[in-house]
Amino acid sequence: MAGVGKTVALRALAYDVGLSDPFPDGVLYMTLGQGATLETVVRELSNILAVTGAATIVATVKGSITLREAVDAAVPWFQGRVCLFLVDDLWPTKTCRTGFLSDLRQLLRDCPASRMAISTRSTTIAKCARAAVKFQARDPFGSASVNIFIAYVTRGASGEIIGSQAQGLRNSVQKILGICAGLPIALAVTGCAVAFLSSAYGDFDTACDTYATRLEKKRNHLGDEDSVEGRSLNASIMLSLEFCKMSS
């Protein structure tokens, strides 16, 4: 499922200074995506090699015909090192249900103390992991959803504008939370947009009413091609980007 925080969690690991001790040779982040190709993966592999100082190997990796060839060229550089490889958004490919995972895991071949963490929407790929953490949407009206929304609203607006009404969950806030469907990313971008509107209007109620109405229209306009959660996520991101353009 999209928008539940998989990428955010992996990026948090990438910036976690506490991991520098257990992984002294680097926390190395690669992002792929549904449309990732051989060129995409080779580029990301080249980037982490360059970051760790393996400039002489990068040209060889970039000239590889297959991913296994590229990985085999990189393996000697990581031999004996202790790294944490973070691979974000792995998808199955047309030729392999586990995507690029089997080749990328070879990076651990000669460095037994290194580890690899991945994010994926594929249950097939997830089953390949030694341990898995399942991400899912929160209760749309539960405390976790409310806290995420309010946290992002208050980052961009003053306490006087927010007041105590946000905690009372007025009808427009209830509608916003319902449409966001408990998805952390939707709640975060929506909270930022409401904060912008609160500052523009000088009134939290008006901001929520305006955003709730437009968010509902945006979601309904997307039709039924996607899942409920997919429409909620897309609507919140698209509408929030519209407000970002207005502010620039």
Helix and strand layout, with pairings?
Blueprint: H1 6-14, E1 27-31, H2 38-51, H3 55-62, H4 67-78, E2 84-90, H5 101-104, E3 115-120, H6 123-126, H7 143-155, H8 159-162, H9 171-180, H10 184-201, H11 204-221, H12 228-247
Parallel strand pairs: 1-2, 2-3
Helix pairs in contact: 2-3, 2-4, 3-4, 7-10, 9-11, 10-11, 10-12, 11-12
Distance between the termini: 31 Å
* CATH structural architecture of the largest domain: 3-Layer(aba) Sandwich
Biggest sheet: strands, sense, closure?
3 strands, parallel
CATH class of the largest domain: Alpha Beta
Helicity level? 40-55%
How many domain modules? 2
Describe this structure in words.
The chain has twelve helices and three strands, in the order αβαααβαβααααααα. It is mainly alpha-helical and 248 residues long. It has two domains: 121 residues, Rossmann fold (3-Layer(aba) Sandwich); 105 residues, no CATH class. It has a three-stranded parallel β-sheet. Helix 11 crosses helix 12. The longest helix is centred in the last third of the chain and has 20 residues. About 5% of the residues have low confidence.
Summarize the structure in short.
The chain is mainly alpha-helical.
Short descriptors:
elongated, single chain, mainly alpha, 12 helices, 248 residues, 2 domains
